[in-house]
Amino acid sequence: MPNAAAHLPFYYGSISRADAEEYLKLAGMADGLFLLRQCFRNLGGYVLSVVHKLQFYHYPIERQMNGTYAIAGGKAHCGPEELCEFYSKDADGLCCLLRKPCNRPSSVEPQLGIFDNIRENMVREYIRQTWNLEGENLELAFINQAPQVEKLLATTAHEKQIWYHGSITREQAESRLYSGAQPDGKFLMRQKREKGMYALSLIYGKTVYHYRIKQDKAGKYSVEDGTKFDTLWQMVEYLKLKRDGLIHYLKESAPNPDMATAAMAPALPAHPSGVANKRLTPQNSERYAPEPIGARILPMDTSCYESPYSDPEELKERKLFLKRSNLMVDEVELGSGNFGCVRKGVYKMKKKQIDVAIKMLKSGNERTERDDMMKEAQIMHQLDNPYIVRVIGVCEAEALMLVMEMASGGPLNKFLSSKRDEITVSNVVELMHQVAIGMKYLEEKNFVHRDLAARNVLLVNQHYAKISDFGLSKALAADDSYYLAKTTGKWPLKWYAPECILYRKFSSKSDVWSYGVTMWEAFSYGQKPYKKMKGPEVMAFIEEGKRMECPPKCPPEMYKLMQQCWTFKVEDRPDFVTVETLIRTYYYSIAARTEESLEEGAKVTPA
Hints:
By secondary structure, the protein is an alpha+beta fold. The protein has helices at 17-26, 80-87, 116-131, 135-156, 170-178, 232-239, 312-316, 367-381, 412-418, 425-444, 498-503, 508-523, 535-543, 556-565, 576-602, and strands at 33-38, 46-52, 55-63, 69-71, 100-101, 186-191, 198-204, 207-215, 221-223, 252-253, 327-337, 340-348, 353-361, 391-396, 400-405, 410-411, 447-448, 457-461, 464-467, 474-475, 483-484, 505-506.
């Protein structure tokens, strides 16, 4: 894919932190002086380097799967240029406003990274061969699939590097490192016996040190608890620049003898910079980390996690309005309301058939209801996230029909209420973490849900939740932080933040308040919030500084998060990036403790 920052005069490409600081020094070190460079850790990411009070600040910018760019904890933007423009007007957590770009000298071109020269051709060729596409179809698939395919190729690119030795033993690794010259920093990478596990073996002072490479639940790699990387080859290139906990930075590759003609990607220059965070010895450098959570298949390991349009050939056919001949409507009614009913059905795509839920507008409904359903369809059709019910499209025939993904488990509150003696607290945490991921996605896309509640979280199965019902949702403009409602209508006041009720202001932060109420519903196993209080009583209760009590089975860490979500002042309330991080950390800590207790019970000792 084309580099989104390549045209910017203050973009320097793949340079080190030290080089960035040198350019900023030469440009005068004025407050707000900044430049942009490529990130060594995140695919498609950048680093914003800024001067403030003669100090350097470096902010990683990640490219999200939806194509937007964001600094951790900050707003998402459609490109790095727009991001820099935003921070030139609003510091929003940065050390200062971006005031002056540090443009490249006329003789300096952006330095290419190790993946830049080969990325586009590799992605295009992969799509061509995998789906047998050419011409306009190939270009359409390339535009839509490039981010996913690029990551797929990048995560396996280490296998073509000369320093990668595949599945060899620790003893074989040492033998290969001791073969020939043995300079400090000579290294290789090998695959361990456990699936997906790797080790980095490194010579220093004629001794070989072995470092275990861990992979977290997000798929990022790190040496023990060091810096995290999207890919193994990025890790190696970074560790040529900084030790980051190693006993010595990486310097010279030990060539894989089985790779007769290895086509090496161009390497970055190695600089012996950086300070070690943690020194590892041969004795403790290969400690065993907990295995992934249980043996249960996670949603992302199943086909239901994928978008119906993950295949480019299906993507070509994607339209908002569907043909009635491709839709089979069952008589089975899944639910009903003032708008009409929801029925089960099957939608025939180009290569497959999928189960769907069909929201049917009953005849005789006013034009307003039709307009509302169309607005909901247009909003949801833009969203593509595994934890949000995807809209397939709309169909106008015997009735106006909104066709959505099937989530046959039903609403979260009813499910938990009917199975309160069967569902564990950790299962509830898991489902609420998934809701947080979906809401973080909406926050990044600048969408406000306005009706987040347990009744609007649907289950695919006991371990897989999706956010639904976007009837009240609003898409904010890129420079808006909140939506001002013109009328009140029938609002779910018990789920609304104070600023929604008092000033009719809605934002992602008001969705965070609703998320806290949804958490309370989930951990109370489907109980109704605020008991029998009416809307005005709830508002008075909140203004007095009171909050709902902790549900009986709710862990204190989760109740503390609810209370954070119920922070009265919107500016002090956490965003969904923070909420998702907190609940994810707790969820993984539960999983780790579960694994440890299982291992203890089985008296399993790592080999």
